[in-house]
Amino acid sequence: MLIKMIPEIGHFALIIALLMAMVQAVMPLAGAATRRPLWMAYGQPMAAGQFLFIAIAYACLTASYMLDDFSVANVANNSNSLLPWYYKFSAVWGNHEGSVLLWSLMLAGWGFAASVFTGNLPRDMVARVMGVMGMVCVGFLLFILITSNPFERLLPDMPQDGADLNPLLQDFGLVVHPPMLYMGYVGFSVVFAFAIAALMGGRLDAAWTRWARPWTNLAWAFLTVGIALGSWWAYYELGWGGWWFWDPVENASLLPWLTGTALVHSLAVTEKRGSFKSWTVLLAISTFSLSLMGTFLVRSGVLTSVHAFANDPARGFFILMLLAITVTLSLLVFALRAPRVSHKVGFNWLSRDALLLVNNIFLVIMTVTVLLGTVYPLILDSLGLGKISVGPPYFNALFVPLTVMMCIFMGLGSVTRWKGMAVRDLVRKLWLAGVAALVLGILMPLLYRGEWNLFVSLGIVSALWIVLPMVRDVFDKTRHASSFIAGLRKLSLSYWGMVLGHIGVAVTIVGVAVVSNYNIERNVRMSPGTTVEVAGYQFTMTELAERRGPNFLADTTILQVQRGDTGSSFTMRPEKRLYLATGMPMTQVALRPGLFRDLYVAMGEDLGDGSWAMRVQYKPFVRWLWLGALFMAFGGVLAVLDKRYRRATVTREAPKAIGKGDTAQEATV
Amino acid sequence: MKRRLLLLLLPVCFLGLALFFFQGLSLDPSQRDSALMAREFPAFEATTLRDKNQRVDQSLLQGDVTLVNVWGEWCPACKQEMPQLLELADQDIRMVGVNYRDTREKGMEFLSEFGDPFEVNIFDPEGELGFDLGVYGAPETFLVDADGVIRYHHKGYVSPQDVRERILPEVEKWR
Fold it and tell me: What positions does the domain Cytochrome c assembly protein occupy (chain A) (predicted)?
């Protein structure tokens, strides 16, 4: 009996969570305005309760999937009794309703975490943060309950079996990609709530930046991994061998990443030097707004993309309203309150402050570039000026030079000192690295391929220019220690985070430059016995067969691949699958990954007479793309683990113990 | 004060963008993507599947709203969508097939086994017409209006639901 009611329990839990979110949105803010500690104290328990009840709802939906309850419309549309259990589990977020539920679960999770680790913050600040988080949560829970209820039933005539999960989504990459991406998107809500709370309270001091930094870094790390996973998934799953398509959905995730990166850096300046306060707040607002806008662009279907999502104007309208209210209100609060809290702190133009400002300017230009390219077709269409699509040529033409220019300043920025330094010192630190980067960068394409390529050289010079000065800086910093190892130990975790993050950027740049220019692709007709040579590898088709999977039929090929120089050989098995429930054909790529090259074989189409069109690709350094992203994310996590933030947590305990029952505390802190 | 007014420009700019988004909600993005949309059906000259002496060209698609279906004997999904295509032909919709990267015998075998909804089949063994049409793979279906202009492009298998919800409304729209 209880099992049959699972969807209703989930629905009910969502309603309770909504009510709690409403209390959380109103009471703490009202309490902060009227200085009532009891009202302010509502925030934390409500955040916990909300997280608990959304988790219950989420568990109920997962249970409905696991139990094949096809009376639930969401399950019937996105699952099938033949689907393996792990895809039933991930199918929960492989559709609109479920992924919004996951979004909300994570939002509540971040809110709960923020309510637990409040640091040594004044009570009214915590109350305001909780209030803002509550408001965002109310918006999303209303969105679910009004337009996207995942617990909708198909009664009395429920289908015998489900329509199956989109075959593109039946894959490990898609199991992990959305949760990571959402963790990033949603994580920025914490720093957003913090910025708004600081504006409302007029308290944009070092304490809030110190508190906001680890949260921002963590959200940024998640988003970085999420984007990288998405790119990796597109690479092996779509069968084209591309890793970034400048597709609106990809751009929607890149936009908050760019402003988020700017925010990570500008928070550093604000914490260390107390400058750029308003700018940092504006970035915090923009980053979360762009996360919301990304959700709108993806969920409403106003832009076309390779990611096919259901297009429902009612949903689009709702998210647009949510977006409009959030952004307009927060920008209004910013416009009205920001000037009051600005301070002037002087710095020299040759200082880390100034270079970080330049980095921010570049990142903002990149954001605007991507934003324009993404919404331009929509704007033209709205004005009735025709239908166009903006593609990779636009983005590549602008993004490549912007990245190269930013790299120049990145190399300088990581070794300069705050406030200012003499030109002589900087030149002494950098000249060797600069010369080495130029020489190696220009020579490497020649050594690697025997012919020179401008873009590969640009990429390698940029990457070395980022890495070499930092290496030298590490040596400089450890010179006075008793031993090199002891010196390394002394460097803080956040310094290591910075180094690793920047190395990550360099690694990704090398990957992009090499694979974009040295990729080899051959489209060939193959039948059993045919041999093709690509980049020194002999691909021989040995077998062509059909096989039956759990929920698909497949044509499989077995290729014997022999390496020309060493003679070592291995097999590759690409497949063309037909998923039975949806009748959708899918290409299953055969990959032979390696640190310096991937071999990539995809089956095209059956050409009759027993031969197939095959696409064989040699992709050098393609793994570096995602490896770099992992470095960046790991750098972000290292910075979060820095003692500095832990110390802040320890000192919090003391005043709290003393301040117990002290209702006037927030007035004095 | 001046600075505050300047800052107020931010929400105003955003609201402008939101207005475009709002309008975008009522526009159909699928008309924006395909480069061939609202363009004339590409010029071609070919023989028909049944008769290697009968020549056809793009004038074949003038005069009536036509569904052009790209298929091949080698394509399993094409077999699955045949019932839907036969149903469409029963509703007096003119159907023209493009036999894509196939041989005459296999194509004919396919039609005798799975039914023939097509008035005529363009024989395209090398996939030249398919290439001009920007076909990703079979099956794909194009709706061509009475003036020979492509109005709708369906990639992949046509399900009974697609017939009801996409194909028939599109045909009505351009008739």
Answer: 93-300
